[in-house]
Amino acid sequence: MKQMLFEYEKGVKVENSDALLDLLKLIWQQHNNTDLNEELEEKTVKNHQPFLKISSNEIKANNYVGFIQTENDLIEIYPKVFRNCPDKNKNDMIRHILFWMDYCRKWKFPFNQSNLERISFDEFPELIINLIANQFLYTITNQPLTMYQFVEEAMQIPKGSVNFKRYVANSMVKGNFQNIECDYEPFLFDNKINRAIKFCSRLLMNKTKLSENLQILQEIIFILDDVDDIPCNSYEIENIRLNSFFEEYNKILDSCKLILNQQLFSSNSYDFSQWCLLLPMEYIFEDFVVGFIDKNFSDIWMVEYQKSNEYLSSNPKAFNMKHDIFLTFKKDRKRKSHILAIIIVSWK
């Protein structure tokens, strides 16, 4: 089943709505760990999912834009601004969404507009997989990463530093005095980042249905043949720190987090039965407006987001306000009549 929805559009009939509801609840409970979702979590009950309204085998999109892909189904959700367009071209709609996200600061999207000029896909998930796969392949081909990898190992010939606490616990109490617990950092191609790239590539291989994407991912696996196949999670990725010289690999890590945050717990580490990207549109668009003004008009305006130190009444000080976007004219800051912009966008 393939469905294309728009925000707050009338509902459409689907099969197995109960299974879809259970999946969305699980996604919300397990993966509301981004900075953006932490903000939303306060407003949402944990056992509730805010993505779709589901009732009587009918689904209706809320304010989330993106896609939900399972083994047999694909639901794509687009902004309501495109709802009444005579030509609902998916490529154009996706390019608009990615253009907005290119200016976002809260939600890091590891691609830019130049990545989109040469590609055209009819399905949102396959486009994202293609962008990530090409990003992986380009980076590991042009800038192979060899780095110091921390290793804990029991050895008969000491290497690095001896970990006496581990030696007592693992060797002495068992009578294996010859096994000396050592900590050392060899310079390896088989490191945490390359392992994460390989693991994420295998996950995407299980999800893509296009031969072009599959071929790129297989090439990545071939290049990383000497790297161990070890599953990882987004928490491990968060704790990796890189030198600024490897800026491209920081973008790679953002892509890995994008993939790993969608993986549900499974007895099979390489199971990727669902693949989704769901973004609250009002936050994305608001963040886009802030980023766009700041980038293009920062010489004129000082842009402050969610500013909350202004009051409706100054004497007495009361009714604290929280502005979506607060603009101050830089050339005359002493004036009391600062420019206040609360951006409200409504599409009928």
Structure summarized in a few sentences:
With 348 residues, this protein is an alpha+beta fold.
Explain what this protein looks like in three dimensions:
There is one protein chain. The protein has helices at residues 17-31, 35-41, 90-101, 124-142, 164-170, 192-205, 211-223, 234-238, 247-260, 281-297, and strands spanning 2-6, 12-13, 52-55, 58-61, 64-69, 74-78, 147-148, 151-155, 161-162, 180-184, 187-188, 275-280, 301-314, 317-329, 340-341. It has 348 residues and is α+β, with helices and mostly antiparallel strands. Among the domains are: 151-184, no CATH class; 298-341, no CATH class. Strands 1-6-5-12 form a four-stranded mixed β-sheet. It has a three-stranded antiparallel β-sheet with strand order 2-4-3, covered by helices on one side. A three-stranded antiparallel β-sheet has the order 8-10-9. Helix 4 packs parallel to helix 7 (211-223) and helix 6 runs antiparallel to helix 7 (211-223). The model is unreliable at 335-348 (pLDDT under 50).
